[in-house]
Amino acid sequence: MKQLLILFCLFISLLTNAQTQFITKGRIEFEKKMNQFKPFEENESDNEWMKEMMKSMPRILTDVYELRFNETKSIYKLAKENTDNKYMWGTKPSETDHVVNDLDGKTVSAQREIFENTYLIKDSLRNLEWKITSETRDIAGFECKKAVTKICDSVVVVAFYTDQISVSAGPESFGGLPGMILGLAIPRLYTTWFATKLELIEPTPAQLAPVQKGKKVNWNQLYVELKKGMKDWGKEGHRRIWTASL
Question: In sequence order, what are the residues at sequence separation of 6 or more whose Cβ sits closer than 8 angstroms to the Cβ of residue 28?
Fold first, then answer.
């Protein structure tokens, strides 16, 4: 009886230790979904040519992205383009875009293809004011807490993060929460990112240090340049700037 009690206590101890272990390295697949019709429905509702073109294209675009990470770095990029997609102007993803977050150095390095220009954004990690709520959601088998912030002064960003993955990172350049962001939604861009699986694969140094190029700017310089170039674009210009600011 005493031996059974010892074995039971040992089992409980092992189970508790397993539950308190945190994941610090791996590869996460994200499914990015975007409603590409919404902006045109708002601005071009009476454009018959646009309506005809939309009949041959999918309303929802779905592409697969990946986030590789360890305790000190993360890299986010396109993993697999959906060959069934038909992209409207300005919605096709770029295979050369990479976002590298240096968590130790507290810096971000992001390559962005914006029309005919290539930018290399180098800046400090985002300092976002997140408001953590009591709402939770299960994503890819992890219990995630909801948090809300804003970018570009007024664009609401909703995130779901898990503290079971103790790396403060996420899709695009988002992070700054006490855990990994597994779900993201930006209603004004009609876009969501949700993790579909986690692989416990340690990234190589080469995977975390891609070759990047482009005109070097920080976030503010990019914002000023795009705002100047798209000053007559109306709502579409704002959306382009918000997308570039992710």
Answer: 66, 67, 69, 140, 180, 182, 195, 197, 198, 199
Q: Is 200 exposed, middle or buried (0-12, 13-18, 19+ CB in 10 A)?
A: exposed
- Over residues 181-214, the pLDDT tens digits come to 999 999 999 999 999 999 999 999 999 999 999 9
Alpha carbon separation from 225 to 91, 219, 231, 246 (Å, rounded): 20, 10, 10, 16
pLDDT at 97 over 50: yes
Give the Å distances, CA to CA, from 203 to 65, 179, 241. Answer: 15, 18, 31
Alpha-carbon distances of 136 from 43, 143, 156, 161, rounded to whole Å: 35, 7, 18, 9
* DSSP classification of residue 45: T
For 171-206, the DSSP string reads STT---SSSEEEEEEEGGGTEEEEEEEEE--PPPTT
pTM as predicted: 0.87
Nearest one of 162, 161, 138 to 148, comparing CA atoms: 161
**Beta bridge mates, 69:** 26, 74
**Dihedral (CA of 3, 4, 7, 8) sign:** negative
